[in-house]
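Protocol check, entry for the methods section draft. Step 1: assemble the input record (protein sequence plus ligand SMILES). Step 2: submit for complex structure prediction. Step 3: store the C-alpha coordinates unaltered in the notebook. Ligand used here: zinc ion. Step 1 record:
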Amino acid sequence: MTNLPNWAERLVRVVARDVGREPPVVVWRHWRKPFSTSGVCYLEQDKIVITEGCRGNHDTKRVLLHELAHWITQQAHTETFYAVAFSLYARYAKRITMKSCREFEDSYKPRASAAGYARYRARRG
Ligand SMILES: [Zn+2]
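Step 3, stored output:
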Protein backbone atom coordinates (compact mmCIF):
# COMPACT_ATOMS: atom_id res chain seq x y z
CA MET A 1 0.00 0.00 0.00
CA THR A 2 1.36 3.39 -0.90
CA ASN A 3 0.67 6.83 0.56
CA LEU A 4 -2.47 5.86 2.42
CA PRO A 5 -3.62 7.90 5.39
CA ASN A 6 -3.41 5.78 8.56
CA TRP A 7 -7.18 5.44 8.91
CA ALA A 8 -7.50 4.14 5.36
CA GLU A 9 -4.72 1.60 5.74
CA ARG A 10 -6.28 0.34 8.98
CA LEU A 11 -9.69 0.11 7.30
CA VAL A 12 -8.35 -1.89 4.35
CA ARG A 13 -6.54 -4.30 6.68
CA VAL A 14 -9.59 -4.80 8.92
CA VAL A 15 -11.96 -5.41 6.00
CA ALA A 16 -9.50 -7.85 4.39
CA ARG A 17 -9.03 -9.69 7.67
CA ASP A 18 -12.79 -9.90 8.18
CA VAL A 19 -13.29 -11.52 4.79
CA GLY A 20 -10.27 -13.78 5.24
CA ARG A 21 -8.12 -12.42 2.43
CA GLU A 22 -4.78 -10.70 2.07
CA PRO A 23 -5.38 -6.96 1.57
CA PRO A 24 -5.42 -5.69 -2.01
CA VAL A 25 -2.77 -3.34 -3.30
CA VAL A 26 -4.05 0.17 -2.68
CA VAL A 27 -2.54 3.16 -4.45
CA TRP A 28 -3.43 6.56 -3.04
CA ARG A 29 -3.29 9.77 -5.03
CA HIS A 30 -4.57 13.31 -4.64
CA TRP A 31 -6.57 15.49 -6.97
CA ARG A 32 -5.00 18.86 -7.52
CA LYS A 33 -8.48 20.33 -8.00
CA PRO A 34 -11.44 20.40 -5.61
CA PHE A 35 -13.16 17.30 -6.93
CA SER A 36 -14.87 14.51 -5.04
CA THR A 37 -12.81 11.45 -4.30
CA SER A 38 -12.84 8.84 -7.01
CA GLY A 39 -11.77 5.23 -7.07
CA VAL A 40 -11.17 2.30 -9.36
CA CYS A 41 -10.88 -1.37 -8.52
CA TYR A 42 -8.80 -3.51 -10.89
CA LEU A 43 -10.13 -6.98 -10.14
CA GLU A 44 -7.56 -8.92 -12.18
CA GLN A 45 -4.72 -7.09 -10.48
CA ASP A 46 -6.15 -7.21 -6.96
CA LYS A 47 -5.62 -3.46 -6.87
CA ILE A 48 -7.55 -0.37 -5.85
CA VAL A 49 -6.59 3.15 -6.85
CA ILE A 50 -8.07 6.01 -4.84
CA THR A 51 -7.74 9.62 -5.91
CA GLU A 52 -8.58 11.65 -2.85
CA GLY A 53 -10.56 14.81 -3.31
CA CYS A 54 -11.27 17.76 -1.06
CA ARG A 55 -14.71 16.92 0.26
CA GLY A 56 -13.60 15.40 3.52
CA ASN A 57 -13.06 11.99 5.00
CA HIS A 58 -16.66 10.82 4.78
CA ASP A 59 -16.64 11.19 1.02
CA THR A 60 -13.29 9.42 0.78
CA LYS A 61 -14.28 6.63 3.15
CA ARG A 62 -17.46 5.93 1.17
CA VAL A 63 -15.43 5.65 -2.03
CA LEU A 64 -12.87 3.34 -0.41
CA LEU A 65 -15.61 1.06 0.95
CA HIS A 66 -17.34 1.11 -2.44
CA GLU A 67 -14.13 -0.10 -4.12
CA LEU A 68 -13.62 -2.71 -1.39
CA ALA A 69 -17.12 -4.01 -2.16
CA HIS A 70 -15.97 -4.55 -5.77
CA TRP A 71 -12.87 -6.29 -4.48
CA ILE A 72 -14.92 -8.57 -2.19
CA THR A 73 -17.66 -9.45 -4.68
CA GLN A 74 -15.46 -9.42 -7.80
CA GLN A 75 -18.46 -7.84 -9.51
CA ALA A 76 -19.42 -4.60 -11.17
CA HIS A 77 -22.49 -2.63 -10.04
CA THR A 78 -24.78 -5.60 -9.50
CA GLU A 79 -27.43 -6.08 -6.85
CA THR A 80 -25.02 -8.40 -5.01
CA PHE A 81 -22.34 -5.74 -5.13
CA TYR A 82 -24.69 -3.14 -3.62
CA ALA A 83 -25.88 -5.49 -0.87
CA VAL A 84 -22.25 -5.95 0.18
CA ALA A 85 -21.45 -2.24 -0.19
CA PHE A 86 -24.32 -1.27 2.12
CA SER A 87 -23.27 -3.88 4.67
CA LEU A 88 -19.74 -2.41 4.60
CA TYR A 89 -21.09 1.11 5.17
CA ALA A 90 -23.17 -0.13 8.09
CA ARG A 91 -20.31 -2.04 9.63
CA TYR A 92 -17.26 0.13 9.03
CA ALA A 93 -18.65 3.64 8.60
CA LYS A 94 -20.98 4.02 11.53
CA ARG A 95 -20.57 7.79 11.60
CA ILE A 96 -21.67 8.17 8.01
CA THR A 97 -25.44 8.13 7.67
CA MET A 98 -27.01 5.36 5.61
CA LYS A 99 -29.10 8.07 3.95
CA SER A 100 -25.99 9.72 2.53
CA CYS A 101 -24.63 6.33 1.44
CA ARG A 102 -27.85 5.59 -0.39
CA GLU A 103 -27.77 8.99 -2.09
CA PHE A 104 -24.17 8.34 -3.08
CA GLU A 105 -25.00 4.95 -4.62
CA ASP A 106 -28.43 5.79 -6.03
CA SER A 107 -27.00 8.62 -8.08
CA TYR A 108 -25.15 6.08 -10.23
CA LYS A 109 -27.27 2.92 -10.64
CA PRO A 110 -30.53 3.59 -8.83
CA ARG A 111 -32.28 0.33 -9.65
CA ALA A 112 -29.48 -2.07 -8.69
CA SER A 113 -28.65 0.10 -5.70
CA ALA A 114 -32.23 0.02 -4.39
CA ALA A 115 -32.46 -3.75 -4.92
CA GLY A 116 -29.11 -4.27 -3.19
CA TYR A 117 -30.20 -2.10 -0.29
CA ALA A 118 -33.40 -4.14 0.07
CA ARG A 119 -31.35 -7.33 0.08
CA TYR A 120 -28.96 -5.95 2.69
CA ARG A 121 -31.94 -4.96 4.88
CA ALA A 122 -33.58 -8.35 4.49
CA ARG A 123 -30.35 -10.11 5.46
CA ARG A 124 -30.09 -8.04 8.62
CA GLY A 125 -33.56 -9.15 9.61
ZN1 LIG B 1 -18.12 1.09 -8.51
